[in-house]
Amino acid sequence: xxxxxxxxxxxxxxxxxxxxxxxxxxxxxxxxxxxxxxxxxxxxxxxxxxxxxxxxxxxxxxxxxxxxxxxxxxxxxxxxxxxxxxxxxxxxxxxxxxxxxxxxxxxxxxxxxxxxxxxxxxxxxxxxxxxxxxxxxxxxxxxxxxxxxxxxxxxxxxxxxxxxxxxxxxxxxxxxxxxxxxxxxxxxxxxxxxxxxxxxxxxxxxxxxxxxxxxxxxxxxxxxxxxxxxx
Length: 231
Hints:
By secondary structure, the chain is of the alpha/beta class. The protein is 49% helix and 12% strand. It is built from nine helices and five strands, in the order H-H-H-E-H-E-H-H-E-H-H-E-H-E.
């Protein structure tokens, strides 16, 4: 079996492993009309302890930036930074008044893991998401979205850490993480639960695992977050 065929099978396996949660991401609609309709009908969404953090983030403006592809993950970082810069230009001082969440789900999920995980499993991640280090054209050994040296990516040098310093939080898909851990275990001969625990112990700063990225997207809208889709 060729590497190309093997990689294609890995990507199909990941998509199958994530099941309906991943597919549902293809049909997520804009929140504005849905929220307006809910208000007219008197609908009040249920509240759950698991989702309480959406309401606890400080801010008078709320934005959720969603990504589901590798390029979309980099673009999401750029969108978040553009929003903060534009807000500061138009409304000086209001950056601190913004609750901003970037979501890494589906094929952008590995960007929710730190460099130690990328150093160990970067080859497998690259085979799934096809996002090479532009300096070497090979599999990344670090999380490229947290590297100031890689300014030619869609995030243009804005890093995960730089946004953390501005109060940005990250939602990382747990469903996808479980699927990716299974694929890593298959490729390396490891144990899927052990690999998953490595992921969970090495999340990016201000990152948290959410049940599913698509679930976080819908729950965020119920807490009044506007949604930006980065791809």
